Amino acid sequence: MKIVTIPEVQRVRDQRIAAVVPLMSPALLHHELPLTSDLHDNVLDGRRQVEDVLNARDPRLLVVVGPCSVHDPVAAGEYAGLLREQADRLADDLLIVMRVYFEKPRSTVGWKGLINDPALDGTGDVGTGLRIARKLLLEIVRRGLPTAVEFLDPITPQYIADTVAWGAIGARTVESQVHRQLASGLSMPIGMKNRPDGSISTAIDAIQAAAVPHVFPGIDFSGTPAILHTTGNPDTHLVLRGGGGRPNYSADDVSSALQLLRKASLPERLVIDCSHGNSNKDHLRQPLVADDVAGQVAEGQNGISGVMLESFLVPGRQDLGGELTYGQSVTDACMGWDTTVEVLERLATAAHSRRTVAA
Ligand SMILES: O=C[C@H](O)[C@H](O)COP(=O)(O)O
Ligand SMILES: C=C(OP(=O)(O)O)C(=O)O
């Protein structure tokens, strides 16, 4: 019998790594797709407006609205054009920020978003995914619309975060130290979602954790491993998204959440996600949730800084695998465009009343 000697190192290292594919550095992608100085001003302006709303220096209502996930940049670009018109029309009452979500956290398995798998077929061409994502983000920033993403992978922010005005740490990662550290160093306001089981205290812990400086290993702009020292993020806030089989957008839920924030000596402000656990993932329920929230806003609830809506060109959702309907979500069901416009109008009326009540 022939004995093959395996080098020691190969017996212990990378036993479950099937392939290692080179990836361009963040610096290289930025060089290829730069944020030019006019776009730079748009991003800074978008972030400042979001911060002003969160800190009650601007009485408008923040609305983070757009597809559950981007799978087709052409449809997302068309959506951005339509949304920009509404953002201008309703700008006195609403600060509209577009959801441009490229990273999807899955409960078990499923498509993990356009950065992870741009061909939608499991081939996992992350380099192409990052390139498409950055290109689309730049296009939307060029239109003058502030952008929102969920930050899921701790490496991807170096590639795209310079284009983002509002970020989320999702329900499935809000308890993770890695994500709290990441949020402490991100340059824009970050919403911390309540956990999928409905736990709000976990999100409040995350707000407190991300507010202070951290030191942790990561990569720098050139892609080199580095020890990152952060300053802490003062603009994190709670996002109520329902969970544990029940919604948490009612006036009573809002007042208990604000009380928890007060007890933790945190600013009493929050965003309500009208989708996910608050709609039971039923897009037809989102307008009902939004109307309830609009009612609270109109009555003068200043603790509600913003709302989140999942919306795309065509209502509902579809599965990947067959022929795809243009402009329809391939993850959670979204409101269609016409309904979205109606909901935005009702939210604007509510925000207008709140301002009038306060004056
Ligand atoms: O927002 C999208 C989904 O709710 C999230 O990615 C989880 O989806 P899943 O439970 O279908 O995996
Ligand atoms: C995944 C999302 O939400 P959550 O983390 O609340 O499930 C999302 O907003 O796309």
Automatic annotation (TrEMBL):
| Keywords per UniProt | Amino-acid biosynthesis, Aromatic amino acid biosynthesis, Transferase
Query: Which intervals hold domain DAHP synthetase I/KDSA?
Result: 52-344
The cross-references to InterPro entries, in alphabetical order and at most eight, read: Aldolase_TIM (IPR013785), DAHP1/KDSA (IPR006218), DAHP_synth_1 (IPR006219)
Which SUPFAM superfamilies would you find in this protein's record? Aldolase
Record pathway: Metabolic intermediate biosynthesis; chorismate biosynthesis; chorismate from D-erythrose 4-phosphate and phosphoenolpyruvate: step 1/7
| EC number assigned by the record | 2.5.1.54
Q: Organism's domain of life?
A: Bacteria
Instruction: Give this protein's Gene Ontology molecular function annotations.
Output: 3-deoxy-7-phosphoheptulonate synthase activity
Tell me what reaction this enzyme catalyses. Answer: D-erythrose 4-phosphate + phosphoenolpyruvate + H2O = 7-phospho-2-dehydro-3-deoxy-D-arabino-heptonate + phosphate
Q: What class of enzyme is it?
A: transferase
Described purpose of this protein according to its UniProt entry: Stereospecific condensation of phosphoenolpyruvate (PEP) and D-erythrose-4-phosphate (E4P) giving rise to 3-deoxy-D-arabino-heptulosonate-7-phosphate (DAHP).
Which family does the similarity line name?
Belongs to the class-I DAHP synthase family.
The record's PANTHER family line, in alphabetical order, gives:
PHOSPHO-2-DEHYDRO-3-DEOXYHEPTONATE ALDOLASE DAHP SYNTHETASE, PHOSPHO-2-DEHYDRO-3-DEOXYHEPTONATE ALDOLASE, TYROSINE-INHIBITED
Q: What is this protein called?
A: Phospho-2-dehydro-3-deoxyheptonate aldolase
The scientific name of the source species is: Paractinoplanes globisporus
